[in-house]
Design brief:
mainly alpha; 6 helices; transmembrane helix; membrane; PLAC_motif_containing
């Protein structure tokens, strides 16, 4: 489509998920068993790329993975990871549910990371970007 300024504008994606609501629930892990199993077995391998995508490249997958792993050793990974859930919600105007981001990551860390990966995938983002 021509915008009249010599630049092309992309046609809107009719099948794009609506802004303002999650495309997948916190406990819908088995909607994508691959993501579910990967997150349960090795959550840092899913979190790192998620962080890079959510932070639009300002945080590298590798550094996010290392920080997450280091904080996991003392049980504090949720203090780092919840900030990326907040950024994801801000990007797509998603509601803070079922409770605050810190609470979700503290109580349901693996479910939250899995939901965030499914959300990115459902919104058409290449979730293979940044994998170590």
């Amino acid at each position: 489509m021509d915008t009249g300024e010599g630049k092309s504008a992309q046609a809107p994606n009719i099948n794009a998920p609506p802004t303002g609501q999650w495309t997948t629930g916190l406990f819908d892990c088995f909607d994508d068993t691959g993501i579910c199993c990967s997150t349960w077995l090795c959550p840092h391998s899913i979190f790192g790329p998620n962080a890079e995508i959510i932070d639009q490249g300002r945080t590298s997958s590798r550094s996010a993975t290392y920080i997450f792993c280091g904080l996991s050793l003392v049980g504090w990974a949720f203090l780092y990871s919840f900030k990326f859930r907040s950024k994801l919600r801000a990007l797509y105007n998603l509601p803070e549910e079922p409770c605050g981001d810190l609470c979700v990551h503290y109580c349901c860390l693996v479910f939250a990371i899995s939901q965030e990966r499914r959300e990115l995938k459902n919104r058409g983002l290449d979730t293979s970007v940044g994998i170590i």
